[in-house]
Amino acid sequence: MSARDLLPLILALAVLAALPFLGLSGSVLNFLVTTLIIALAGVGWNVLGGFGGQYSFGHAAFFGTGAYATAILQMKLGWNAWGALGAGIGIGALAGLAIGYLSFRAGLRGSYFALVTLAFAEVFRILANSADFTGGAAGLLLPLRPGLATLQFADRRAFYLLVLAFVGVALLASRWLERSRFGAHLIAVRENEEAARALGVDALSVKLRAIALSAAITAAAGGLYVQYFLYLDAGVAYGTWISVEALLAPIVGGIGTAFGPLVGALALQGLGEVTKHLAGGVPGVDLVVFGACLIAVIAFAPQGLLGLRRRRKARAERAVPVGA
């Protein structure tokens, strides 16, 4: 990657890093932390769905696995929070490898793969809801112990910067995918798997590495979620809400692009909050907005908000007279 590739990423992170020091209220900081966690999950989904063309409806399986592993290792085994978070990311990647191996080895793709991932997330939710070590239906409540070692901060700005650092690393990985040989193989598999195989690409290996990376990033989002809210149950960890949020962000922002999930998460969550405020807190009104946005994007901007920008730029260049 060249310095030119990294410049937009550095500028975006610098702007986002400056936000919490502008005197924002606690509720706005809470909104930004939640949005960045969703953006991180969206980046994870985008690796597999956007770059790899393997659409998943069940990324909650990885989010919940990362969250539960992070919480259980601290509460049951007394692990350090940093170590538990790292292990949660690794366990999430292993869950991705297992689901990917079973699905891709069986030749599942398209809607069949999407439904299988949804089924895995639902099975995980039922198991977590009934097992003792996950706290069952009551869930898990992490003890409040503010400190760097416990990844609990009295100042929300510290946690915001921590989540932003994870988002920055995930965006860097996405940028690398756009420029690397592995990313080229992944896109070749997405466009035409048979043709990619004919050219010598090991499609199974490429898809397994992609789902492992995707699951690891999504598990990191889950681990950060439980560290921030200090509570977790099966409905939160493996609920359909995070699967929907993770796929909507890149689709609305720009699927298969490095910045699409971040742009989509900021746009959707911001619009949802504004709508809830204007509607007087009517329950579910943000979901109505999300659905309307998805329909509008599919109908008028299939390449997302970033695609609209590129289309306007191309139109402006065509409008310049030859020789001008």
Automatic annotation (TrEMBL):
Keyword Repeat found: no
GO molecular function: branched-chain amino acid transmembrane transporter activity
Membrane topology classification: Multi-pass membrane protein
Subcellular location: Cell membrane
One GO location term (cellular component): plasma membrane
Protein name: Branched-chain amino acid ABC transporter permease
One Pfam family in the UniProt entry: BPD_transp_2
Listed transmembrane segments: 27-48, 55-75, 81-104, 158-177, 210-232, 244-267, 287-308
Major subcellular site: membrane
Biological classification of the source: Bacteria, Pseudomonadati, Pseudomonadota, Alphaproteobacteria, Hyphomicrobiales
Keyword Transmembrane on entry: yes
Coiled coil: none
Keyword annotations: Cell membrane, Membrane, Transmembrane, Transmembrane helix
InterPro entries cross-referenced by the UniProt entry: ABC_transp_permease, LivM-like
Organism per entry: Methylobacterium currus
